[in-house]
């Protein structure tokens, strides 16, 4: 990777780019960076800036991407391309023979793997792959392009990466190699070599796509979707969900300490200053009895209703996880799942585990037709649950409002709103989609305290502070 030459202008560009993608950098941190770069000229600038600007491990890949994009100058020369692990030389490619899998167009670095022989008497086979020119593949017909919708642009990098890997022949070659591994023909050292090569090209393809995107749009804020705070909650991989759950735990801990300003008497807690002063007056400076106080719970009862149809289930999973982290701060918490029926899951043991997605989906398959019916759900809730709720309770609804052209029955939601203190609706769809023909948000929002778009962790954090603080 090229090293970025840090001067005043480059530093300003880096800070502006990081702020645009959602990483906060204070003026004090900028001043510290200038001092450190001046005082320690022998240290790598990237290491200095990362240590001062990045405070969470999850932000390090995003910093690396921004830094590399600023440091890399686009070039069409193959000699300027980074070298892939295990890149083969020209002689290596000649040795590949009939077992090689060649790509299309100009090569950008290949790899040759030597496999075990199926028969002991024959020599080991060698198979190779050479990655074609990425820009050539991006110009092929069918390459997924930017989707333009009104003022927003959404680029599905995953589809573009899969297209490039497919058209290059890498997926076919990779599949044949995995089959060979299953037959025991791939030695462990050769498999590790392949994995390093695969990971390199995954990163390299992403970098080239990001460079193209930056050159076309000339704006950094379009990279916000890469920031885990602004990444849609339904797009996290299984490996990334642990990171999201850790962030939700921290959010829950922070929200839990904001328990309202009102205090109430308690057998233990903080000393009541007013009572202490009165006792000192009565006892002429002596105190014979102490009184304590604790913060009064602002929301004594929390009721959470989560749509678990396929389109909303990933969002509901994280809301349920956050509410579980804050459960001890409420007098009572009730958790419900719904599609076309309502299911109480408050006491289900699987809620305590981080991996609840499989259970959430299984409930939808076991107990419903798979088509959401908000009207029926609100009717069942008003009949079976509402009579037992506190008038000071808060209801959270996670759902997209799409009712599959079934009756809205909004009068039941109106009845629910009249009984409890607040009804907050969290919708994972963009607001422009709330007016689609099968979406009833225009009708339901009349009976909600507030309706919030909720697509990512940043939205969930902002909403939680308004609801629970």
List the helices and strands and how they pair.
Blueprint: H1 8-20, H2 27-39, H3 45-53, H4 60-71, E1 87-88, H5 90-95, E2 107-115, E3 125-132, H6 134-138, E4 147-149, E5 152-154, H7 157-168, H8 170-182, H9 188-217, H10 238-256, E6 263-266, E7 270-271, H11 273-282, E8 292-295, E9 301-307, H12 313-325, E10 332-338, E11 342-344, H13 357-367, H14 374-384, E12 394-398, H15 410-419, E13 422-427, H16 441-444, E14 450-453, H17 457-468
Helix pairs in contact: 1-4, 2-3, 7-9, 10-12, 10-17, 14-15
Protein name: VWA domain containing CoxE-like protein
Organism: Desulfitobacterium chlororespirans DSM 11544
Biased composition (Low complexity): 73-85
Mean pLDDT: 80
Q: What is the approximate shape?
A: globular
> Could you state the CATH homologous superfamily of the largest domain?
von Willebrand factor, type A domain
Tell me the structural class.
alpha/beta
Secondary structure: helix percent? 40-55%
CATH architecture of the largest domain: 3-Layer(aba) Sandwich
Question: In CATH, what is the class of the largest domain?
Answer: Alpha Beta
The total of helices stands at 17
Strand content: 5-15%
Biased composition (Low complexity): 73-85
Organism: Desulfitobacterium chlororespirans DSM 11544
Region (Disordered): 73-110
Pfam families: VWA_CoxE (PF05762)
């Amino acid at each position: 990777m090229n090293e970025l030459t840090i001067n005043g202008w480059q530093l300003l560009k880096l800070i502006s780019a990081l702020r645009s993608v959602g990483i906060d950098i204070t003026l004090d941190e900028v001043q510290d960076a200038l001092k450190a770069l001046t005082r320690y000229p022998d240290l790598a600038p990237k290491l200095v800036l990362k240590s001062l600007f990045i405070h969470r491990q999850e932000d390090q890949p995003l910093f690396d991407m921004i830094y590399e994009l600023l440091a890399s100058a686009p070039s069409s020369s193959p000699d300027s391309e980074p070298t892939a692990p295990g890149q083969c030389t020209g002689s290596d490619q000649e040795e590949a023979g009939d077992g090689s899998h060649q790509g299309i167009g100009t090569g950008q670095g290949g790899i040759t793997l030597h496999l075990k022989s199926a028969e002991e008497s024959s020599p080991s086979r060698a198979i190779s792959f050479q990655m074609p020119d990425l820009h050539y593949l991006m110009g092929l017909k069918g390459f997924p392009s930017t989707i333009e919708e009104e003022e927003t642009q959404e680029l599905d990098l995953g589809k573009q990466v899969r297209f490039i890997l497919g058209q290059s022949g890498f997926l076919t070659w990779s599949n044949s190699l995995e089959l060979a591994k299953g037959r025991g023909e791939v030695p462990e050292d050769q498999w590790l070599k392949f994995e390093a090569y695969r990971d390199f090209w995954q990163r390299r393809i992403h970098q080239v796509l990001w460079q193209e995107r930056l050159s076309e749009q000339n704006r950094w804020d379009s990279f916000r979707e890469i920031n885990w705070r602004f990444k849609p909650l339904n797009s996290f991989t299984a490996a990334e969900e642990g990171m999201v759950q850790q962030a939700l735990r921290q959010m829950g801990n922070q929200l839990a300490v904001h328990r309202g300003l009102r205090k109430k008497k308690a057998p233990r807690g903080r000393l009541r200053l007013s009572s202490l002063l009165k006792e000192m007056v009565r006892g002429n400076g002596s105190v014979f009895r102490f009184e304590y106080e604790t913060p009064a719970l602002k929301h004594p009862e929390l009721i959470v209703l989560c749509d678990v149809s396929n389109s909303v289930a990933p969002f509901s999973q994280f809301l349920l996880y956050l509410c579980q982290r804050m459960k001890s701060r409420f007098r009572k918490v009730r958790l419900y799942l719904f599609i076309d029926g309502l299911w109480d899951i408050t006491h289900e043991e699987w809620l305590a585990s981080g991996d609840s997605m499989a259970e959430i989906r299984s409930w939808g398959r076991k107990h419903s037709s798979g088509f959401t019916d908000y009207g029926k759900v609100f009717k069942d809730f008003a009949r079976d649950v509402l009579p037992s709720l506190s008038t000071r309770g808060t209801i959270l609804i996670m759902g997209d409002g799409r009712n599959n052209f079934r009756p809205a029955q909004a009068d039941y939601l109106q009845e629910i709103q009249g009984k409890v203190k607040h009804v907050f609706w969290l919708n994972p769809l963009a607001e422009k989609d709330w007016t689609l023909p099968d979406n009833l948000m225009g009708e339901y929002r009349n009976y909600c305290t507030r309706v919030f778009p909720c697509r990512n962790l940043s939205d969930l954090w902002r909403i939680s502070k308004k609801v629970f603080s």
